[in-house]
Design brief:
With 840 residues, the protein is an alpha/beta fold. It contains 32 helices and 25 strands. The strands form four sheets. Strands 1, 2, 3, 4, 5, 6, 7, 10, 11 and 12 form a ten-stranded mixed β-sheet that branches. Strands 15-14-13-16-17-18-19 form a seven-stranded parallel β-sheet, with helices on both faces. Helix 22 links the parallel strand 20 and strand 21.
Amino acid sequence: MPEGATQPRPVVSVIIVNYRGAEDTVACLRALREQLAYPADRLELICVDNASGDADVRRIKEAAPGVTLVESQENLGFAGGCNLGARHANGTVLAFLNNDARPDPDWVDAAVATLRAEPTVAAVASKVLDLDARQADFVDGGLTWFGMGYKRHAGTDIADVPAEEHKLAKDVLFATGSAMFVRAGVFAELGGFDERFFMFYEDVDLGWRLNLRGWRVRYVPESIAYHRHHGTMAEVDAPETGRETFLLERNALAAMYKNLSDETLARALPAALALTVRRATARGDLDAGQLDLQRGVGPIETDPVPVPRPALAGILAVDQFVELLPSLAESRATEQAARVRTDADLIPLLRKALEPAYPLPRYLRGHEILVEAFGIERAFGSRRKVLVITGDAITARMAGPAIRAWNIASVLSAEHEVRLVTVNPLADPPPAPFSVSAARKRDLVEPVAWADIVILQGHVLEMAPALHAEQAHKIVVCDLYDPMHLELLEQSKDTPDDRRTADLAGVTRVLDAQLQRGDFFLCASDRQRHFWLGHLAALGRLSPRLYDADPTTDSLLSVVPFGLQAQPPERTGPGLRATLDGIAESDHVVLWAGGVYSWFDPLTLIRAVDQLRERRADVRLVFLGMRHPNPEVSEMDIGVQTIRLSDSLGLTGKHVFFNEEWVPYAERQNWLLDANCGVTTHYSHVETTFAFRTRVLDYLWAGLPIVTTDGDSFADLVRAERLGVVVPAQDAGALADALERCLYDTEFADGCRERMAAVAQRYAWPRALAPLVEFCRDPRPAADRLPGSADLTESDPLRGKELLRRDLALVREYLTDGGPRELARRAGGRVRRLVRSRGR
């Protein structure tokens, strides 16, 4: 930004709720007007009077002119009052401040700076101190397993609070409603505070819901407010009435019922209800066994038993929680459908979930019993559910996409509950430590609903319309390692032009849909990453919001290459020498370890072998598998051409061997260990530039020197790490020389193998999949897909002389471009738009 320029600032609407506290409210409004460093023209002050009476309204009007005063005809509580104020607000940021609080001059600036710098932060939790700035009021939040939010370190001298607890910014579960900021669009998306809470825990509930939907709540220590704790409450009620206790108990149950997952709630809710009763009897010092016949039968007593109000409050809270259940059930359905975070994800934000919260000996004994009986320590530790969907056949003989999906599922199953599903009709999987199944389109509804994260390949997204729905809140990871549209350009050369064009458009639409929908993307190389970044930019996904969240875009698109097994290959059975007639133990074998597709160039390879056999009679070329294991992949003409050329040169069965069926994936090492070098050859075209030759990794795994055509990412690797020889495209002579060197130059081949051992470690599946593993440990929607995202700052409308100057400049431009006719056309269009807008 040029020196002296200032960043645009959002309009911040500060909302104050008054209830019979006009003196505090007026003082708060004055402090907001006079003490804040934030520009006054970007600040909107809104005061909601909660039916306090004419005296309060009159005093606020007289003392705070220019403030938007909203008069409610009934007491809506803190939650309802804030929501009413939000509905009258014009700012893109809402700030909530208790009327008995005072802002630090930088209270707004510090919060806004965080919201602008971090688009994934929905709300800012201010640092709240007492009015003398001596004691902590809010520097962190915690949540008990039974739903009670609490302020950690509240009431402690700030000098005694560890510096890392109050001086450093951090993510928190919730911000205190006494001083907090929230994006207006997100607040509206979530329906604001839950008005059924009236007061207490509505801020906990809001923060909990924000976190479950993938947003962050950020404690910002530079955003400071000073608060007279419970100042307003002390003026309108007294602790001994039990009303505050009633609200705290009821609202804790409501919050946990809305926000805990089904699995956690099934354990926690019965225990929480029982604990509420034990807390009530302990708080009221009631004799819980006074009606127990086991004590013996004495004189008949029917007189009422006195129950202290604090004890009664807990019993009534359970009763009123029951009364709220029908409406809470509707809210629960909404929250559970919208959540993208698990209970386990939020454990760090709960701080100390097993905190009993009340130091009453009899209550503590009950807490200990219930935690043990209901397994509460295990309740929040359920594993995340990850669904991996592939369109490839999953059998003992697997192609690249299925191999990749299989290993993704295998690595992730160490930490998560994983299902691998193929939409291919061919599914006969080998044994696996995770669930593997086949599904038709209609069968995907259940696994998609089950999953927290969906990882998909190829055309799968179009088969799962539930992931496209506007309210689909699943985290979606798209594996883009296979640029299908580039393959199709080459594969469809023999197809009629109109069909070829239509097929390409269809595949491109499939990829576009993935790029629009995904929260995280995988690609196989740096080359691919640049390619897909360009595609994302063209589709508008590289928005300012997404860029501001992560200028590197690493959190959106990561390189996850194809991998190989971490352990070196070990022979488990016969290989190619024992299987194929015509190959002796002393022969030098070149292995083609993958399918034969249109974008490869096996023809030049056949010609190179024909040349090499003239001077090396024991050279043998083996194609590992000609027929693709996926029956939905049509046979390509290049395979037929390859066999015909080999036949015509008299090589088939003597120097060139075609294995018809693919070797089972679990047995491929036996064939690799029988070879002396690995080869891959291709043409020079765009598919080559961005391809990732997956089976080349098997050469690395088995320590086979590599001969490859130049032009792809693996050619760069082979050249840089000296793992073999790189040759020009379609140069049979150079290819023959390269094969001869790798097969017969022992010193060169041994050097390649030695260097391969170190390189292979970089491609082991656990290491290759590290970015995906890290994402799945803390999955969140992409910054531009968070619900309620909206622009914080907007351009000021032009007025007066600025508007006139703009219009005159346009007139000159139109006259220059097209003369009076162009001016008339443009002016006419503007008039029509104006008429339409006024007619709405």
